[in-house]
Amino acid sequence: MTTAGATSSASVFSKSGSVSPESGPATSGPSALADEATFREEIRTWMGEHLRGEFAKLRHRGGPGDEHAFVEERMAWERELAAGGWTCVGWPVEDGGRGLPLDLEVAFHEEYARAGGPGRAGLVGEGLLGPTLIHFASPEIKQRFLPGIVSGTEFWCQGYSEPNAGSDLANVKTRARREGDEWVIDGQKVWTSLAQWSGWCFVVARTEDGSERHHGLSYLLVPMDQPGVEIRPIRQITGTAEFNEVFFDGARTSVELCVGAPGEGWKVAMGTLAFERGALTLGQQMAFERELHGIVEAARRNGSVGDPVIRQRLAELSTRLRIMRWNALRVLRVDESVALVPEAMVTKLFWANLHRDMGEVAIDVLGAEGMLTRYSEADEGDAGDIEMSPEHKLFFFSRSDTIYGGSDQIQRNLIGERALGLPREPR
Ligand SMILES: Cc1cc2nc3c(=O)[nH]c(=O)nc-3n(C[C@H](O)[C@H](O)[C@H](O)COP(=O)(O)OP(=O)(O)OC[C@H]3O[C@@H](n4cnc5c(N)ncnc54)[C@H](O)[C@@H]3O)c2cc1C
């Protein structure tokens, strides 16, 4: 194992996020570009020195559709990253981050993905819950939970969706009642990604009797390892089961572990959703690039690259990837608050459809082979028993992109009503 936190290259940026006096501010102008280049080099060096040995097998593993791969090892990798100061790089220094300016945060995620950095086991904590706590939680809650996210020792899942509350989240039926100094929770969540590997869940629950819709909901932090919580994995068409049904049957959590005021959880829950468009999406674009590269390789191997229609579709994907990147940068620059800006609404719709189309091109490139999925012993690190080519996995898993984080139809409603100011749909 590599020595935790050791980097042989001198860090231009201290953990405090301040740029060293020699390097100048990293915001704009030629010196900022030079700083960014140095910073990118620092990341590349660190990744080269640390993503090896026992971690080498994690390269390019654990992304969407592959989250079951090497879970324990990816959790250990989170601690390795943390020791090097590479978790939560955009968080404020006082909350345990590096306080990196946006340009460098983006640079980090891009270089991480380019170096083959594995899918982040701490993604939900770092990308969703952490920013929510920083924005909405009491100092005590922040002190209790932010360090576990920064150090890669506590992992989180998101308990929003229920059988009749997905797009219509305000229909949440899970209830929590106060009993002494605890909340007692009953209800069911569904599609809870990574619940089986998470120590904690942030749960949207109804805490006021007789309340309806978005009133009377609370945002509770609930430990998963207790008798009142049952997790049932849901096996998907990819053969893997990274998301779950979660049943709460008298589950308990401290009355203090409510983010925001009891009954006012809707505002907090919406804040979390807005963070889904954060800087981490820039790494996603790099991962898509790599997938496209894989498709081109497959087309070269079987000769379909000579087909003018396939060539045109590949070129179109490449162009759309560039547009995706510029879209994401535009969102990140527009607004750093938790408000959902019009640019972000367009971005989700854009990348989700791009990725789904990429899956379709991948299958078409395979030709007749695309009709076969190979059944065999699982790869090392795979929990499932269906081995698929990366193109198959991409095709199947990318179907979910237009559902989670706001389905296409809901995104279109949002764009129509909130961005374009069209009349609200009849309810
Ligand atoms: C891979 C993946 C991971 C997920 N991880 C999590 C997680 O970790 N935690 C969590 O809480 N949830 C998670 N989800 C759930 C996700 O948030 C929901 O699937 C999503 O909100 C849609 O809800 P639903 O599945 O209940 O579909 P529904 O809301 O029932 O929608 C069904 C269809 O009806 C359409 N529709 C619904 N309402 C309208 C309307 N008003 N106008 C037009 N069309 C409409 C939808 O667009 C969709 O096509 C995950 C989902 C996926 C696919």
General description of the model:
With 427 residues, the protein is of the alpha+beta class. The chain has eleven helices and eight strands. A four-stranded mixed sheet has the order 1-4-5-8. It has a four-stranded antiparallel sheet with strand order 2-3-7-6, with no helix packed on it. A hairpin with a 2-residue loop joins strand 2 and strand 3. Helix 7 runs antiparallel to helix 8 (308-334). 42% of the residues are buried. The protein binds flavin-adenine dinucleotide. Flavin-adenine dinucleotide binds next to strand 1, strand 3 and helix 11.
**Order of strands, widest sheet:** 1-4-5-8
Helix content: 40-55%
Enumerate how many helices there are, as a single number.
Answer: 11
Poorly predicted ranges (pLDDT <50, ≥5 residues)? 1-29
Q: Which value, in Å, is the CA radius of gyration?
A: 22 Å
Instruction: Note the overall shape.
Output: globular
**Count of DSSP E strands?**
8
Beta-strand content = 5-15%
